[in-house]
């Protein structure tokens, strides 16, 4: 890993960075017992409110808390403005790309991306070819994972354009911090985030099928046993819309209705939180019990908006990721504000050769993997693990990409022995509709185990409140 | 609102009400068991109660004989038995969780912490004192009801919640009466000396002991007890009161095909409103209660069919 990671709170000689000074001063004055008591209080509150996620493969009904750390991740305003600009730019280009792929495919014709990379991708949905969606927007809600490298530069690690989750933790973490430490919010100008549900609803209404004056929006969930169920229920409640399951909806005459106590009611926009594969058993997985038969027919007829659109996975795949900076140049004629992490594509001979020779220093990821599974972190692996992975790579190199092992930036975090630096990332949520909007900040995830770089909640990650400090 | 949402709300409140009814029954018997008493009478009362609630078979699978301590623990704390108080609290919470977005956060947090606390109490060893536990369940039910009334918008969600509460309560009052009735017929009252043990259990289980004294200022007689619990409009757990509430809430959620269901609810209410104790005795109290329970079941089925998720689809 070579270089020392960037510490968000302190500079190399131990001095506090300017935007953290006031917080650090406050922290120094807090008795250890008060902080310990506040941490226990946060735990009890999260349990009572039921802010939990279901754990797959555990006893039925098992629900866990995602650990919450009380030290916020703080970002100065100027830094956020630059990041915001970069995120908007990136998501605009990604939406333009998806529209292009399902229409004229100019980017493929221009030779910027090899056609087979897109058209042979399992996430490419031929059913979407030629389908027009309102405003040409496909990724209405995008979660872009941002990391900071050892030079202090922000980089995009991953785009999530299908059903990104985590925004409820961003909102609940802020509520919790304000409840635990109200005094901090009177002494710091923290940009608010609690209007996110309003912005989201407005955004979803703005992409209703044309001609619908007062659209009915619903949130579609797989049900109470889904790992992100809390978030689905939370967002539906905050927006004041119905939380539906597939069984609550049906299609008649190419229009979608929900079953209510007063009979069928027309639905115009579905904010879906289930994958493409499960949406319509007549088109995708016939064994899906979660979907709505005929939904795709209504969709193709332009009678319903589905957010995010079907087929967005073609743009957030790890094999497409390396081309996003090119997309920004191609569609917007701009140079990217936030860069990618350097990525070797192992289907290329030269890249493969380099990676095989440097496995112990690199991170190798499966192109279709998610949640931190199916990857090799070279520096943290044994020789035997590396060799085993090498054989997998040689067998099917096109299934993998590789990246340098990033020294993700760190933030002081409560561990067993008190405060210690832990690696973090950031997932801002970018909303696209009539405009592109982002509430300041996002969800900061933290790898709680010492030295760990995996921030996923399924693998021992926690979260922090994220502060953008207004000037 | 979504039919499935209404269904979860309805069952959420039915389960909370059921937990409270069971807690009241356990509480009444438990108090009696602490006083000097005849073992056979207590066992008989427990037996009759479990029969009326269809709990006997499940109990017999686990225990040989009716033994008060075992019955109390079985009805209150048995997590393996789906009809126990703790299972009802769990079911109420699971239903609430499925529609937590339609509840006020106060109501959801109340139901959620009730279940979390119940789980802790049940897994504690040795078990919590039964008297304390059922007292706590009653308090949580009171709290849940108070939060429901104090925080929920008076919309469909509220009405379906109330329909669940009162249908369950009507069912429960009728079953408790069934378990403790004597075979009342015309003229039976005059000379009979009621068993004070049985009648005070019954009255306590329905929060009616003090009410009885206040209303009748007289010794306890079976006919007056039946009258109080069936025909008094001002008695919160009487059959008349429950039917009145079911009817009025049902009328607030009326839809295109619910006319017959409303008519039947109205008929039940009108019958109780206009009938007299003499008519009930002519039919015989057991027959009357049997018919009433049949009508409650029918009404529940019709409500599910008209508004909620019909059992076949669920």
In short:
The complex is a heterodimer of chains A (471) and B (314). Chain A is an alpha+beta fold and 471 residues long.
Structural commentary:
The complex is a heterodimer of chains A (471) and B (314). The model of chain A is unreliable at 57-61 (pLDDT under 50). Chain A folds into 2 domains: 18-341 and 406-469, no CATH class; 342-405, Dna Ligase, domain 1. A 5-stranded mixed beta sheet of chain A has the order 3-23-22-19-18. A 5-stranded mixed beta sheet of chain A has the order 13-5-4-20-21. A 4-stranded parallel beta sheet of chain A has the order 7-6-11-12, covered by helices on one side. Chain A has 471 residues and is an alpha+beta fold. Helix content of chain A is 30%, strand content 24%. The longest helix of chain A is centred in the N-terminal third of the chain and has 25 residues, at 77-101. Chain A contains 14 helices and 23 strands. In chain A, a hairpin with a 3-residue loop joins strand 20 (429-432) and strand 21. In chain A, 43% of the residues are buried. Chain B is globular and about 55 Å long. The mean pLDDT of chain B is 89. Helix content of chain B is 73%, strand content 0%. With 314 residues, chain B is mainly α. The chains are: A alpha+beta (471), B mainly alpha (314). The A-B interface holds A 47-50, 61, 223-224, 233-234, 236-237, 242-245, 247-248, 258-263 and B 1-6, 94, 97-102, 105, 108-109, 112-113, 116, 156, 160, 253, 255-256, 307-308.
